[in-house]
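User: structure tokens for this one?
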Amino acid sequence: MCGPYTLTVCTEHPGHVPVHGGPALHVPEGLDALASDGTVIVPGYLEPNPPSAEVTSALARTAARGSRMVSICTGAFALAAAGLLDDRRATTHWLYAPALAREYPRVKVRPQELYVDEGQVLTSGGVTAGLDLRLHLVRRDHGARLLVTAPHRTGGQAPFMDPPVRPAPSERASVYEWALRNLHRPLTVDQLADQAGLSRRTLIRRFHADAGLPPMRWLLDARLARARELMESTDLTMEAVGRRCGLGTPANFRTLFRTHVGIPIPRHVRLTGSGEPMTASARSPHRRGSSPPAGGPSP
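Assistant:
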């Protein structure tokens, strides 16, 4: 018993369960333990392959009885395999978000979110974001009176996300590389299709298959990723960053950054330890460096 909650750990095959980065756990309870749970939390696992039919069936039955279903990190793949994320918004670690969208197209994947609350079903990003989700559950169940920390961390996963996915070097990847070399230009879907030697419709299908995104959204993510890189490693002005990345005026740059990264540029600066790009022609005489967010890619 721990405060207002009782914790029971269960597994498909009771006994010693290997744990990545630590000693094996002895878990005596099997899937039958799910029958009495009010909340089921599926933790992340190293290889997010579909679980067995026994596990997915148990999760589906538990949800049908009204239990609250929660996943941490790649645990979202188990909920998706059980059909519990169909037509719902959901998140997972940003590194695995394209795979979740590709393998379960009915899931409305939101990789930028720390966690997503869809009522009965809740999902979180990485392990650190799982802490945010669990604090959210405590606040939802008992109000903020039990919390000794802020119940919500702003910023989401977006400030820590890698540049957009592209295939390994090959003829198939040439259009992605070309687009990345030409981010300063006002590119269109038709230009990308011409460069790839494909019809517009085939190009759009190719982008969805490769990156899980339509071409123009992939391109916007690439522009914003390049902008983050420049902000963290150069002394370029706001105008120069926007121009090099094809993001337009400083005002447009700020709006797009806040809308799609989820936080204003000054907040990103504080999270990443980078310097904020300056307006007009003012420049610092020193090159700014960057320091990684605490915990690496864990959000």
